[in-house]
Amino acid sequence: MKLKLSALFVGVTAAAFSFGAFAQQPIVIKFSHVVAANTPKGKGAEFFAQKANELTKGKVKVEVYANSTLYKDKEEMEALQLGAVQMLAPSLAKFGPLGVKEFEVFDLPYIFDGYDKLHTVTTGEVGKQLLAKLEPKGIRGLAYWDNGFKSFSANTPIKMPADLKGKKLRIQSSKVLEEQIRALGALPQQMAFSEVYQALQTGVVDGTENPISNLYTQKMHEVQKHLAITDHGYLGYAVIVNKKFWDGLPADVRKQLEDAMEQSTRYANQIAKVENDESLEAVKKSGKTTVYVPTKEEKAAFMKALLPVHQKMESRIGKETIQAVYKATGFTPAK
Ligand code: LMR
Q: Which of 1, 145, 239, 256 has a CA that sits 20 to 30 A from residue 127's CA?
């Protein structure tokens, strides 16, 4: 009996000690992403790391891994589901392979006429419902972060859709983007973001589409002679976490992290446009790329070529999702 009691005592002490040691160890959140640190997403991630540390009083340590240093596009989704990383902010164009095709509604050409229209979706009911679709995949969607509107680049001038005909254009892993490129008579080449610069440099692809902050911070402008400000589609992010990890956090810590995320979202969405505008100025100043702003007529020609993609992709995205976005933004498809 004596022996048993002392064994129990040792056990309790060990448990208390290990709990104490555990309590002092910060909870680590690995936040992996694929873009440069000096982009809207990169800065948003760093801001979150700081806020999380501040609001949890050091109980949470967020480690940010930028520029695909930890995982590339496809790998990072798998790593999140396996719990090898806890937080990501993939582009909304990268949720199709996960089986959540509805997110590709964000890729429809010209569906958002500016950030304000887009926010009617991301801050509204539709945005909430889309994030909820991630739950059965073991993922919790926390927020939407902006980047910006995409433009086409290539090594030959781009004024009209016909200028992209036959070109190999790199896209993200979205079927809507694939269809968009086909609608231009061009050839879609899906590829991880980390491989784009080299693919452009070596001629594996002829061109691409991206918000200017991505083009500039990856130095793509150094290997693309022409950039047309087409603003033909949106690129933004869903900040996501491993659901099991998130649900397992102490309630007070989770609340503090939610506050940190709310502040970071405000910050990221505030800087997105400025970052893209500044990148455009930097591209112009570099003298390496000719920047062209299509005329009203040229813009109309791009719209005419690309708007049929909406209807074509209805069966993939789902009519209700598309209609819900139209309703939120006031977009009226041409009859
Ligand atoms: C891309 O692959 O072009 C983008 O999704 C990269 C990013 O995360 O902005």
A: 256
- Ligand 1 pocket mutation, candidates 31, 32, 33, 34, criterion most atoms within 8 A of CB: 34
Contact indicator for 76, 70 with CB cutoff of 8 Å: yes
Containing domain of residue 106, as a range? Answer: 26-329
The predicted model gives 293-304 an average pLDDT of 98
Q: What's the CATH code of the domain at 37?
A: 3.40.190.170
Quick check: is 47 in a domain?
yes
CB 86 within 8 A of CB 30: yes
Backbone angles phi, psi at 304, to 5 degrees: -60, -40
What letter would DSSP give residue 83? T
308: in domain:
yes
Angle between helices 115-122 and 319-329 (to 10 degrees): 130
Is 15 contained in some domain?
A: no
At residue 333 the predicted structure's pLDDT band, cuts being 50, 70 and 90, is confident
Q: What is the pLDDT of residues 61-78, one digit of tens each?
A: 999 999 999 999 999 999
The number of distinct structural domains making up the chain is 1
Residue-wise pLDDT tens digits, 221-235: 999 999 999 999 999
Q: How far is the CA of 193 from the centre of ligand 1 (A)?
A: 6
In contact, 184 and 161? CB cutoff 8 Å? yes
Distance (angstroms) between ligand 1 centre and the Cα of 174 equals 12
172 within ligand 1 shell (Cβ under 6 A)? yes
pTM: 0.92
